[in-house]
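Data card: per-record layout.
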Amino acid sequence: MADTRSKLDKSAFSVTSFAEAEEEDRAYWFSLAPQERLAALEQMRQINYGYDPASDRIQRTVEVAQRT
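The structure for this 68-residue chain is written out next.
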């Protein structure tokens, strides 16, 4: 019977310290153009707070005033 499990590509992973990971993250973000960083920020904002195009406008409120 053949082994049907897929093999793990160990070259795709690396083990680093928190300081090294933070340095790599900083280098990655600084390598992007400001527009790309802003687009990534907007994407993260939409993921965290949700995005609904139907509710992205200002809500209207209606108030009925009674005349005396």
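Known properties of this structure: The longest helix spans residues 34-49. Residues 27 and 42 are 20 Å apart (CA to CA).

See the next section for split statistics.
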